[in-house]
Amino acid sequence: MDFYLTALLQGLCFSAIALGIYISMKIFNIPDITTDGSYTLGAVVTAILLTHHQPAYIILPAVVISGGIAGALTGIIHTKLKINALLAGILVMTALYSVNLSLMGRSNLPLINISSLFTLINISADPNHNTFWILAIFVLIITLLIGYLLKTDFGIAMRATGNSESMIRSLGVNTDRMKIIGLALANALTALSGYLISQFQGFTDISMGIGIVIVGLGSVIIAETMINWLHITSVWLSLALVLAGAVIFQLILAVTLDIGINPNMLKVVTAVFVLVIVSLPRLSLLSRK
Predict the structure, then answer these.
(1) Beta-strand runs (E) in 61-219
(2) In Å, how far are 101, 121, 212, 228, 284 from 243, measured between CA atoms?
(3) The model's pTM
(4) pLDDT tens digits, 215-243
(5) How far apart are CA 211 and CA 180, in angstroms?
(6) Radius of gyration over alpha carbons of the chain, in Å?
(7) φ, ψ of residue 166 in degrees (nearest 5)
(8) Which domains does the chain have, with CATH numbers?
(9) Is residue 158 within 8 Å of 27, Cβ to Cβ?
């Protein structure tokens, strides 16, 4: 039971990255690979500030700002230098590897016996239950903020930029600025996942972000599949399904390990699972034809 509880907690930690991928991929239609670097950047900033005994009200804004700067750089390279969004993300991600390594000074930074978000607040006597409630409240607050933003005039302009860039530009909206802000927001959320997971697992590693984009992408694809099946148009329900997708993705990986699959093959299983989810809508369409 604890095995699946851990998977649930990891799913909640990855909810922020799922929301970030949802914004970049589904709202702006931008495949943002900066995710791999900004996720690690959030964890690195968290680990450094925790080891220097900085309070939570300093660490959290620092993580959000660092992730936002990373995303904004990708947006600036893409919009101002007219470089393909995928290549822009790869360039920033590559640069962030060196930045993260320089900030840490080594490849791994343990956070053992250091006060964290999950020890500052005591909601339950059981550590796992305490972590669950803190994560649930944290993710709920983030989701409410993002949902509220997307329902404002600014958020509608963001969504319109992804749906019909030429139309919204004709109404006087600066689409380049919208993309930069959108990518900054997406990577700030991704950095928050690094903030949560580094404290949850008790260490930060320079390679922890390699391939992490597939986790967020898989979560969003699960959510998108459910959204299409249920014909959902509500922003709030869409965000809720993105969160559910992050948890489902981790639970499926937990089942994979529980049935005896070699942990070395976990990345292969993850890739195959995402491939199957991506292919399902197309296979259904082909079967109808």
Answers:
(1) 108-110, 203-205
(2) 30, 23, 16, 16, 25
(3) 0.91
(4) 888 888 888 888 888 888 888 898 999 99
(5) 23
(6) 19
(7) -65, -35
(8) 2-288 (1.10.3470)
(9) yes
